[in-house]
Amino acid sequence: VHIRLHPNNKGNKRKLLSAHVGDLSSVVVGNSHTSAKQHYKMLVLGGGSGGISMGARMKRMIGAENVAVVEPSEMHYYQPIWTLVGAGAKTAASSGRTTASVMPSGVKWVKSKVQEINPDTSTVRTDDGTELSYEYLIVALGMQLHYEKIKGLPEGFEHPKIGSNYSIQTVEKTWKALQNFKEGNAVFTFPNTPVKCAGAPQKIMYLSDAFLRKTGKREKASIMYNTSLPVLFGIKKYADSLWDIVKRRDLQVNLRQNLIEVRADRQEAVFENLDKPGETKVIEYEMLHVTPPMGPSLVIKGSPLADEAGWLDVNKDTLQHKRYPNVFGIGDCTNLPTAKTGAAVAAQSAILKRTISKVLKNEKPDTRYDGYTSCPLITSYSTVILAEFDYNGEPLETFPFNQAKERRLMYHMKADLMPHLYWHGFLGGLWGGPGPYRKLFHLGMK
Ligand SMILES: Cc1cc2nc3c(=O)[nH]c(=O)nc-3n(C[C@H](O)[C@H](O)[C@H](O)COP(=O)(O)OP(=O)(O)OC[C@H]3O[C@@H](n4cnc5c(N)ncnc54)[C@H](O)[C@@H]3O)c2cc1C
Question: Fewer Cβ atoms within 10 Å of its own Cβ: the N or the C terminal residue of the chain?
Fold first, then answer.
């Protein structure tokens, strides 16, 4: 289109230009720039562990220009290290890097929040009103924390003596409360909902016990773990070891106790007895560590992608959505029936890559996820029990020795090796879990 403008007629020039630009854009929308900006072959929702690692894997598979990741946060956190931040063994600063620095180069970062997913039209709307369309969608939105479901929170965190390793805003408060401990109850909670890293609520108890022993205050402390669960840990082999530890170290475990209120000004925590409805107990604390209730992403819950409970409804073998074959899921947001951990996300990322490569070739996905997940149960500043298991709750251990034993080597792996592996291997889509090493260590027998 050739536009001729008269230099002295500015008003007309503007009109003429807008008229033609309008025409042009409507002509161009069908096949060129305007729509290209909004449409992606592979759209990833969430730039956490699963989202960034899949972004990197998809970049290698189909080219960076075809991939976009929607993530509102400026910062990306390696959440597993927060357990050690809460115990003063690592700094909060070491847990985060800018999202810009972990985004695979060339992949489009859509810096907004997903508000609505519409899989029937293959579109997503963000909070600034932008509509993105996709050919394939990977959902990696994590899970939602609900401190507000406990009466008195989150405002209670403005008081001292209370912390929570589950959020960057409150993790350093745990360490402060531990350092300032004088005398009384140290209380650790586990909520009445699914959680991510189900070991983390008790790991901080073992570390606090170790810290109080180291600083000569242990005799003045009564340490208790109040959990909504009927067990100390879901997998018997590791639960047995943990029961030995709590007995040996005089840690009191109260099962089926659910935190419902915090009166932070009075340092009181209120628990309901889940086995006796209506029965509550008030415990005065000198230190309180809160693991908040958690639930599915509200964006997924409000979409046709959700199962009845609100989780992303995926095939447990292939990670493909059960009803929308161009949609896939990874990580904490899914209804995969395994423990929600970063280690599980790593294993899933390798499976999902394989599933998507098959789907792109119009072939049937052929790899099956075995539910591999792992939880390094930190039991002191130098020991870890490394729980690893599958969908059936059967131990699936990498090393050729009994991992239910507390080991120093496993602590170094957790504290020193894993963060490196996360930032330099996993986020780059180069770490799909320890499966190949397990085979090697067990001479191909596992
Ligand atoms: C204290 C603690 C200790 C842990 N310890 C361990 C451990 O020892 N070992 C282990 O393997 N795992 C551990 N984990 C669990 C691990 O961190 C998670 O399982 C893992 O991060 C899950 O990855 P994900 O991608 O599913 O979710 P996340 O990494 O949480 O990412 C979700 C992303 O989605 C983004 N998002 C949310 N809503 C929207 C929206 N509407 N629009 C766009 N983006 C959105 C979020 O900003 C976030 O970046 C621990 C977690 C915590 C908190």
Answer: N
β-sheet with 221-227: strand ranges across: 162-163, 287-289, 184-190, 221-227, 252-255
Average pLDDT of span 62-80: 98
Distance, CA 197 to ligand 1 centroid (Å)? 10
Task: Tell me 219's DSSP state.
Answer: G
Distance CA 401, CA 48 (A): 33
Q: How many Cα atoms occupy the beta-carbon half-sphere of 162 within 13 Å? A: 24
- Is 25 inside any structural domain? no
Contacts of 342 (CB under 8 A, 6+ apart): 49, 79, 80, 197, 422, 426
Q: Alpha-carbon distance 178 to 176, whole Å?
A: 5
The H or E element spanning position 123 is strand 123-126
Looking at the CA of residue 86, tell me the nearest atom of ligand 1: 1
Residue of 54, 103, 107, 197 marked active site: 197
| Vertex 386 angle, CA 339 and 352, to 5° | 45
Which pLDDT does position 209 carry in this prediction? 98
Structural domains in the chain (count): 2
Comparing C-alpha atoms, which of 163, 157, 159, 199 is closest to residue 179? 163
Residues 62 and 124 in one domain: yes
Q: pTM of the entire structure? A: 0.92
Q: Would you call 27 helix, strand, or coil by DSSP?
A: helix
Identify the active-site residue in 56, 69, 294, 375.
375
Angstrom distance (rounded) from CA 229 to CA 188: 13
Closest-lying ligand 1 atom to the alpha carbon of residue 114: 42
Contact 371/212 with Cβ under 8 angstroms? Answer: no
Atom 27, ligand 1: residue with shortest CA distance: 142
Are residue 312 and residue 290 in the same domain, yes or no?
A: no
Q: The domain that contains 240 carries what CATH number? A: 3.50.50.60
Cβ–ligand 1 distance for 52 under 6 Å, the answer no
| 235 in any annotated domain | yes
Q: Return d(Cα 223, Cα 204) in angstroms, integer.
A: 11
What's the pLDDT tens digit per position in 72-130?
999 999 999 999 999 999 999 999 999 999 999 999 999 999 999 999 999 999 999 99
Res 443: pLDDT: 75
